Amino acid sequence: MAPDGSAGKQPPTIAIIGGGFAGLGMGYYLQQAGIDSFTIFEKTRDVGGVWRENTYPGAACDVPSHLYSFSFEAHYPWSCRYGKQAEILAYAQHVAQKYDLRRHFRFGKEVAGADYDAQRGLWRVGFADGTVFEANILISGVGQLHRPAYPDIPGMQRFTGTAFHSARWDHRYDFSNKTIAVIGSGASAVQFVPELAKQAKRLILFQRSPGWCIPKFDRAFNGFERWLLNHVPGFYDLDRLRIFWFIEFLASSMISRGLLSRIADGVLKLLSKVLMRVQVKDPELRRKLTPDFPVGCKRTLLSNDWLRALARPNVEVVTEAIAEITADGVKTADGALHDVDAIVYGTGFAASQFLAPMELKGRDGQSLRALWRDGAQAHLGVGVAGFPNFFMLYGPNTNLGAGSIIHMLETQAGYIAQCAQLLQARDLRSMEIRGEAQQTYNEELQQRNRSTTYESGCHSWYIGPDGRNTNNWVGYMSEYSRRLRAPNLNDYVLEAAETRAAA
What we know:
Strand content: 15-25%
Number of strands: 21
Number of helices: 13
Structural class: alpha/beta
Strand order of the largest sheet: 3-2-1-7-19
Shape: globular
CATH class of the largest domain: Alpha Beta
Low-confidence stretches: 1-8
CATH superfamily of the largest domain: FAD/NAD(P)-binding domain
Largest sheet: 5 strands, parallel
Number of domains: 2
Radius of gyration: 23 Å
């Protein structure tokens, strides 16, 4: 049954790009809406997205497993409080199998671009192999963390040793008795550096700026906890709820300036300073590793091993800017040359380059890449004016400084599924966000951004080419859920299938 109570017309054909958690969640919610006419296009040979591609040592989630999971498949037997890469990938595969989503997948299909045919109300999706697929609705589930970002350092191609990005890990390389350079000190490096430090003869970390690091309260579930989770009704859900509201509390330190914000900020700073004091005894190293910006300006790091690893005698932290890469190693601005056998780039992802390298063209041939040249924006992070029947999961301003992106993806997927139902029930050719609705929403975002720590001056991947926060949501997860409870049709231009009259 459609949202307006009608039986509906022919269901729309839907193309979903990406087979990670976004694509899986979208498929599930379309099924729940009674729509089975969707295809999920995945460029590789399996589901999993970022958790399939990132296989570096120590790869794990920094959100507790009971919240970093779908609400419709929450009672999963996680081994630890925080899921490791292999276990999260297995969970994604489990969801695909249990909910019969694999039959909707077409693997090995890399999308090159898509064009909207306004006359027919169809998206023509072009693939790297030259084939084309037509659909009424196009949904992007490619995420923000799928394209490795490499630093712009002169001489990178001259290096004669082994070099690779953390997201393209070379598992054949033997780090033992080697001197390793790690460039970058973000969330990925925090996980793999402690593992490399155990193997390498010497590890040199080149740090542009430190991050706030707090303890990760991770451990395996014990037998009693496992019994409670398996046998006490509601216990699992209660734990999920506990985690949700505690993270909402921590998020207040980043998105508001009230009393709750000051308390949360104080808690995070206290945890970080105590961890630093316990694990780093050298005052000079503590100085190098202490941020000079507010908590949340950059992604907060969760680790029990990161600071301890940097204090090891075989690890050196270099804060001088890198001048160039030479054939033998890394040269810093002070003229020092650091000879190394291998370079690992822990420099994250091109998160602000949404949908790249795909080329999308909407109504009248408008290029989304050109439209977003100076910074991406959308309405609710889901739709873009000028691009009818196009929706996004994990679009602009839907990432979180603290929280579970799975929660955000489910919220978006449920909203988009309702839009698909509306297209079917009302026999619409298209629905498109009004330009004024998008502008009003983004003006609100930018006004609220000024009260967050995301735009407080540090260098982070949250900030787009125009210097504004294009990645992070500026409120609580719970607020975002309320705002996407149902589409507001006043925000849309609705085009009838036959008359093409705008309502």
